[in-house]
Amino acid sequence: MLNMHKKIILLLIPFLLLSFSAHAINSGKYFEQTSRLSHEDRYMTGDWNGMRTRLSNKGVDFTSSYVCDILGNPVGGKSQGVRYDHSVGLDVNVDFEKAYGIKGSRFHVSGLYRSGYNLSSEVIGNTLVVSSIFGHEQFRFYALTLEQLLCEEKLSFLVGRMGAQDEFIKSPLYWAFVTNAIDGMPINIPINFTFPVYPTATWGARVKVNITDEFSSMTGAYNGDPDIGKDSYHGFDFGLRLSKGALLMQEFNYTPRIKSEECPEGLPGRIMLGGYWNTGTFRDLYSDINGASYEFTGLSQKKHIGNYGVYLHLEQMLYREPDSDVGNDQGLTPFIAANFAPPNINKLPLLVMGGFVYTGPFPGRDYDTAAIGVTYVSWSPDARRTTEVEKDRGSLVYPEKYEMSFDFTYSMAVTKWMFIQPDIQFIMNPGGTAKVPNALVIGSRFKIIF
User: Fold this and answer.
1) 134 vs 128: CA distance, rounded Å
2) CATH number of 71-83+117-140+159-449
3) Mean pLDDT over the full length of the chain
4) pLDDT tens, residue by residue, 160-196
5) How far is CA 30 from CA 25, 148, 432, in A?
6) Distance of alpha carbon 196 from alpha carbon 205, whole angstroms
């Protein structure tokens, strides 16, 4: 047994090294739907002559993927163009119960390599980025976590380096989309302040309690240092500078099922309610130290200790395909989500998004996914007041009001490990002003599971 463990560790070394420089967009997104398949069917590289299955039986699993977006805007925006970006990566997961007999203990490590160009910032000029895999174009280390399950998996502790988004404010429905306006989380949150999201990890801890089969509570605490995500560190800044702020999270999840004669097992639904608090110092978007316009008086901006926000997510499957291979994943599910934060210290205080996701929309296409989504984000009225003062003083500026993003997408399973996803987006009021023409975005995402 000891020799077998040594062999497993030796096999892990090259993959751990590779994980420092590779990972796609939370690669778990593309494995959830195919988790029931064998290794031979699930991965392009197959079962490695049975080695992958043997390692999995010993508690060691590898999940890797390549994802690229090719998107262009033939109409609208600041100009017209086409841009390409990609994300490549690897996750290594070790089940210590299988490997060493430590019940309920799991280890995870991952990394990424990203490259490419941003169509939104370089060509269109909009805020709701059209490609969710853009950001930190470099080799980058990501997660390093240890999880312990207790009390028959009703209690879970997770510690290590991670993003808050890995555990909070997430839904598999978001993953169906190409636009970063939906794919991931309400994107106004990390725009407003330092909020650790993929691919930036920081030290943190999370406690989850499954109070009942349908109701759970999660509490998390993370380092809020804004310097952690700098590209110069490549994800290897392991500092814990809590003097620059800490992020506290609380989330409740209720997952009821609507049962009927046609669907006795029940149609799954979810209500997610949560909030966050950052202990750092934030500057007012309008007021100076005396409460007047800082842009007008020239005095320092008023400082606020702490920043917070609340979010709500609702989803409910309305129709489930009978006798499908994919199980409860196959069918039609609408969702709606919203995030609100104080407008005096948050540039984008309100975001609302929603849509419909249908897995297996056509006979014989069980692993295809069709989705329609829309996102609305509004700029802070306090920030607009400051812009109006700048305009009154002769500056050539345009007050931002709102931006809307529409995403129409269809992911086609060429095989169970290769997907092509044609995508159409429409950006209304790019950048929040009427200065930039509305933009039409056409392109495709391409995904491979290795």
Assistant:
1) 12
2) 2.40.160
3) 89
4) 999 999 999 999 999 999 999 999 899 999 999 989 9
5) 9, 24, 32
6) 13
- Angle subtended at Cα 130 by Cα 127 and Cα 136, rounded to the nearest 5 degrees: 80
In terms of Cβ atoms closer than 10 Å to its own Cβ (0-12, 13-18, 19+), residue 338 is middle
Residue 89 near residue 113, CB atoms below 8 Å:
yes
Q: Each residue of 197-212: b (16+ CB within 10 Å) or e?
A: bbbbbbbbebebebee
In angstroms, the CA 347 to CA 99 distance is 48
Closest CA to 87 of 193, 178, 188: 178
Q: What is the DSSP string of 33-84?
A: TTTTS-HHHH-TTTTTTTHHHHHHHTTEEEEEEEEEEEEEEEESSSS-EEEE
Q: Where are the domains positioned within the chain? A: 71-83+117-140+159-449
Model-wide pTM > 0.70 = yes
Q: What is the mean pLDDT of residues 14-35?
A: 41
CB contact set of 436 (below 8 Å; sequence gap of 6+): 76, 77, 78, 124, 125, 126, 429, 430
Indicate the pLDDT class of residue 241, thresholds 50, 70 and 90: confident
Closest alpha carbon to 68 in 17, 119, 109: 119
pLDDT higher than threshold 80 for residue 422: yes
Torsion of CA 355, 73, 124, 76, to 10 degrees: -100
- What is the pLDDT at residue 28? 41
